[in-house]
Amino acid sequence: MKSITRRNFGFSLACVPFVAACGNGVGSTKGQEIDARSDATMDYLLTNFPASQEVDRKSTGKLIMPLVTEGGLIVGGGFGRGALRVGGATVDYYSATKGSVGLQIGAQQFAHVLWFMTEDALANFRRASGWVAGADVEYVINDQGANLRADTVTTTAPVVGIVFGQGGALVGASLEGMKYTRIIP
Q1: Residue 172: its pLDDT value, please?
Q2: DSSP per-residue letters across 8-59
Q3: What is the per-residue pLDDT across 140-181, written as a single tens digit (0 to 9) for each?
Q4: C-alpha dihedral, 35 to 181 to 61 to 52, nearest 10°
Q5: What global pTM score does this model have?
Q6: How far apart are CA 167 and CA 58, in angstroms?
Q7: Per-residue pLDDT tens digits for 75-103
């Protein structure tokens, strides 16, 4: 029987995020599949979180990420693919990636939508070669959606994001540090 070396143990830890990404659309690069998943995600969101309908109506565009998978054991990562829609039509496809280091263990999957509330926010997102979610995003992270309102806070924020449908055993779904990159399906 072999003993586990530090190098092999470190390599195993580094592989966790890639294994966790299985089943979230990795390898399904067809635009139709991303669109179908995005349609189902928006149907679920607008039906189960009715307060999101007003934010959706007031936005100039939205990025729908139907499934993001995160996993980690000290070193973590996440990946997903989605569609950017303007005026109800898909204009581009994006991947979302995230890496982290710290006290963490487990895996989870979630969906999220970023609504661009101003033309400038949407234009800046589309011009960027790799846009990172940060302080300019007003986050709504609540599986009940009770705190999602299209009030002055959400309509004056340049970007509003909601994380929903969390499942798994990794605490704290967050979009902080998530990098979005345009892809060609």
Answers
A1: 52
A2: HHHHHHHHHHHHHTTTTTTT---HHHHHHHHHHHHHHHHHH-TTHHHHHHH-
A3: 545 444 445 444 445 568 888 888 877 766 655 556 678 999
A4: 70
A5: 0.75
A6: 29
A7: 888 999 999 999 999 999 999 998 877 77
Query: What's the distance, Cα to Cα, between the start and end of the chain in Å?
Result: 45
Tell me the CA distances in angstroms from 108 to 78, 79, 111, 136, one per residue in order.
9, 11, 10, 25
Q: How many CB atoms lie within 10 A of CB 110?
A: 24
Q: State how far the Cα of 101 lies from the Cα of 125, in Å rounded to an integer.
A: 26
Cα distance between residue 74 and residue 13, in whole Å: 8
**Can you tell me whether residue 155 is helix, strand or coil?**
helix
- Closest by Cα among 84, 90, 181 to 132: 181
Q: Phi, psi (5° rounding) for residue 58?
A: -85, -10
Q: What CA–CA distance (Å, rounded) separates 113 from 129?
A: 19
Which residue do the tokens 């143990």 mark?
9
Candidates 17, 29, 119; CA nearest to 73 is 17
Is 17:77 a contact under the CB 8 Å cutoff? yes
